[in-house]
């Protein structure tokens, strides 16, 4: 494990849920939403979410990436970010 990965907070479903609950991303995210429940982010919410990921986790995710169509649940988002972006 590198010093950089130790300093960066871990990406968890709770962390993703917290980011998604930002009014600029998903103003009406129900607090008890199941991690596998499907939802749709609008384009502005998605861009703000990606910006927040970069600020909080140091992750740069391009909005044009095809995988973004899979960002339809808290678990799918978390799994992608952990699989692809965590060391």
TrEMBL record:
Residues 38-81 form the Carrier domain. It comes from Streptomyces rugosispiralis. Gene3D superfamilies: ACP-like. InterPro entries: ACP-like_sf, PP-bd_ACP. It holds the Pfam family PP-binding. This is Phosphopantetheine-binding protein. Transmembrane segments: none annotated.
């Amino acid at each position: 494990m590198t010093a950089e990965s130790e300093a960066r907070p871990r990406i968890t479903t709770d962390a993703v849920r917290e980011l998604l609950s930002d009014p600029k991303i998903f103003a009406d995210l129900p607090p008890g939403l199941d991690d596998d429940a499907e939802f749709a982010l609008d384009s502005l919410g998605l861009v703000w979410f990606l910006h927040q990921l970069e600020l909080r986790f140091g992750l740069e995710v391009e909005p044009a990436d095809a995988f973004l169509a899979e960002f339809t649940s808290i678990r799918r988002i978390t799994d992608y970010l952990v699989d692809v972006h965590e060391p």
